[in-house]
Amino acid sequence: YRMTGKLEYGLEWDRDQLISLAATIRRIYWPFSVFLMLPLVLFILIRKTKMDLDCKLAFVAHMAILVVFDVYNGLFYQIYTLLPFPVIVCTGIVCDDQHSPRTLLTILAFWTILLCVPYLFVMMRIHQKILNEDSYLKLSHRSQLLLMMVLTLVLASNVYGFGAWSVESEDKEETIQFITVQKSRTYELQMRFMLSMSIQYFLQEFLTSILFIIPMAFLFIFMVTPIANVLSDTILGLFRFTLILSLSCIKLGLSLVFFF
Hints:
By secondary structure, the protein is mostly helical.
């Protein structure tokens, strides 16, 4: 926000319009999601759907966790990525000098991972129900429980990683000035961090819904290739805006499934 005029990669779009627009959309979206969409989805789940009790309870838990995720991601901690720079802008109400970025990221990772667990359980149970009894992929209840424990521990390791190893770059002030990535003294470290973060987000969206694979794949590509140098500023600006909204409004796509 400190520089004026035209910036590299069309970042003046983000500075002047897109960051504030994304923040406004999220402030409108989360109360709509929490107070209108979620109660309707829960009503349909509980009263209108015919599924086994274990799957129904898991879906209800998944939606309940999404409420907390939407409130946190839509009100308290609104992140916006400045691709292809390894920079996260925070516009939520807790984004100030009194709250540690490490703590805020760790909390976001916790809710992101937690919402995957009940959905994974539902996918596993549905998969097991449609298998033939003599299938070699058919698992006992004990094996299913063990599998869920392993998957949960693997996902939880991401939360630990954010809490234990996420640090602000020593070049933070320099990077904020929108310098070129090649000039950053910690370029390699920053790119490794952003690559691991993009892989984590890609895994979360893949397990949640196939509709979110494409934006995460693009995020990965932008982090590890120089493709941003050949695309127009208009495309880059629209992509950043679309990506952050797809991550923030995740429940919209999931909830629509129950309406049709």
